[in-house]
Description:
Blueprint lengths: L4 H13 L4 E4 L5 E4 L13 E9 L2 H6 L2 E7 L4 E8 L2 E9 L6 E7 L5 E10 L2 E8 L4 E7 L1
Antiparallel strand pairs: 1-2, 3-4, 3-10, 4-5, 5-6, 6-7, 7-8, 8-9, 9-10
Amino acid sequence: MKISKRLCASMLVQAFALSGCYVIPERDGQYSFYIPAGPAQGQPAMPRVLSARLYPENDLATQTGMVSGTVTNMMTGKGRFQITYAGETLTGEATRVSGDDRKGIASAYGPSGAFMSCEYQMNSPAQGAGTCMFSNGARYKVHIGN
């Protein structure tokens, strides 16, 4: 199949106007257009919601049992943290420690004044572990990831 020079030039201009689109020359003067999967270069990665499961590590935490919540990894070194503890929703943020892309801290606060603090280490953008301490003295091991 032959493509006119005018049509080819028009297609090339349109292809170059699209970010992340490649024009691949083939034999006989024909061209293929390739758009790679995933975000275009220069585009930020999409946020990812991860589960957070907290397992009791002391007697006080055992009274409440396992606790679960979510961490929304914004893929920027920051995240949003939400957990339900003793019937109350605590919300806060998670932040990677400067100089170490894997280590981070998370803090959350509830309407009654309850709060928690966590230290964690990620072994990938979607999985990690650490320790959390609540304002009442309950201590948990946290596992992050689906």
